[in-house]
Amino acid sequence: MILLNSTDYFQIKTKSMIADYDYETLINLYQPIIGYAAVSVYFTFSIEAKLQKILSYSSHSQLLLKLNMNTGDFVRARKKLEGIGLLKTYVEKNDGVNIYHYELYAPHTPQKFFDNTLYYGLLIKSVGEKEAERIKSIYLIDSIESNNLQDISSSFGEEFHPNLEDSAFLKAINSDQLQNRQKGKINSEFSYELFFEALASRSQISSSSLTKKELKEIERLSTLYGLDEDNVADIVIDLYRQEEPKGKRIDLNALTDRLTKESSFRFLIAKRSGNNVRATNQNVSSDSDLANKINYFEKMSPNEFLYFLQNGVQPAEPDLRLINQLSTKFNLTNPVINVLIDYVLGMNNNILSKAYCEKVAASLVRENVQSALDAMNYFKRTAKQERRKNKKSVNHQTSDENNSNISDNNVSSSPEEKSDLDKEKWEEMIKKIKNGN
Predict the structure, then answer these.
(1) 3-class secondary-structure state, position 212
(2) Helix, coil or strand: residue 225
(3) Which of 114, 144, 364, 381 minimizes the number of CB atoms within 10 Å of its CB?
(4) Which helix (H) or strand (E) holds 45?
(5) 58 φ, ψ (degrees, to nearest 5)
(6) pLDDT value, residue 256
């Protein structure tokens, strides 16, 4: 983990043209998702990129003063920009001084934004469906409605009669690479390259045979259930129907069902053969149980995590369908789903109740919880509030002498208290994880 120091330098390059209307798009469409701090960093970066045509490098200390931000807030805002595809960050180590290289990308056009289910879904999650529809209506194109319209517009060839053998056109063929409307991409562990290689080696299905919607759903289910590209490709080949029109060649409901069963079967084979499920990488430098647990939350798919909690027993299909619903209906990330599963099992006598999970999921959505750490903090905070409420209720019903005993018994027998972490240990862990990054 590389920690940002205010004395580190940085360089910004714009990787695409950023027009004035892009700033309106950032405010209307992106800001509800990434927050005003991230948008402020984006605007400042776009100005700094112009200034750096005179001075190649700038100091983060000067940038933080301009933004009126501390290092932690800046890094969190930067990561929002990276996650949404507006920024790429690289670091160069040079004689003890880190030089950060930032690449700034233009936002999607409104059409591309609303066509992307991830972006549009996040907007709905942030502002609600009604407000999201109202924002979308701003960008609708006004059209002339008439049954008697005839297009009489002149074509390019009719007006300009280009001679492509003219020297001017020959010179125009070899053009330097200029800035374009290039977009940053959201990072994902699912590799389309490996997926298409698997398809090509076993079938005649090409990348152009599937729509973006189908590919996005394949990626989501693969990540959710912890299946690799080879396993997913086999199922896609089996379900693929060439005779159907493009966009309907794969039954997505059947795909969900098959991947659910494949995931259960894969865990059963792993258990019988003694093989480990996909290994997890430890990225928090600590020997504490909390650090390990955070790594499990962040790195495992919900399917793998449930298998891990059940000591190698395959997850039941109803539980897997519930996990899929938490992803599709509530748009929860995999780490947040893992924390939710751990919490519900701990609070509900190891029973993964659908109603209970949905109730907790709705609370997480309202709190805009995006990471495992945010979810853990939310549950810890609500547990403290519940204990205070219980103590207050007991104080009103008992005498002073019995009040202490009842409060102590209440706290010691409370499921929230049993799962509560030592305060100093918790705060120390949070500080380590969030310090500068």
Answers:
(1) helix
(2) helix
(3) 144
(4) helix 36-51
(5) -130, 165
(6) 82
